[in-house]
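JOB MANIFEST
job_type = single_chain_structure
chain_count = 1
residues = 189
[input]
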Amino acid sequence: MLAGLFYGGWNYYRGFRAGEQSASILTDIQTFTAEKTESEPSVEILPDYVLTPEMEMPTIKVGDHSYIGEIIIPDLNLELPVMADWSYPQLDISPCRYMGSAYLDNLILMSHDYPQHFGYTYRLEKGARATFIDVEGNRFDYELVNTEELWPTDVEILEKDSDAYDLTIFACIYNGQMRTVGRFKRIRS
């Protein structure tokens, strides 16, 4: 029982620390994005990604890590930076891009199960909204079409289905035994 309490407390501490780091990094990303969009001409021009959707998503460096933008999920009260690539140590800081691109409508983001990250994805209801804003200030709005649970070995399902959904988010649940997955379609105006 003591081991369970220790593990629970340690996981809570890691989640709390990750939330604080994400908030600090997000401020840097938002400042960069605001400066970038303010310096752009007011004439309406097509963003580069519209003309060349295969282009690599631009990044900014904050500390030792590169970020592609931020994800906002109002129903979970989340506004988080998104790292350009993933590794287990990086997941302790913020959600990361697993694969894909917002420009190609196949972006997959992952995080630990921290409540301060995607830990409560399973609480989202169909129709929930999410917004991804890249470091250039381009905004992509999404609507949740479904959630599901996958086994950790079902990674190929995430990759194979990436063309069916414009945004996918996932996190571990049940002490890493399963993955909770949120599938979104882009809202086009």
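[summary]
The chain has a mean pLDDT of 84.
The first helix runs from residue 2 to 39.
exit_status = 0
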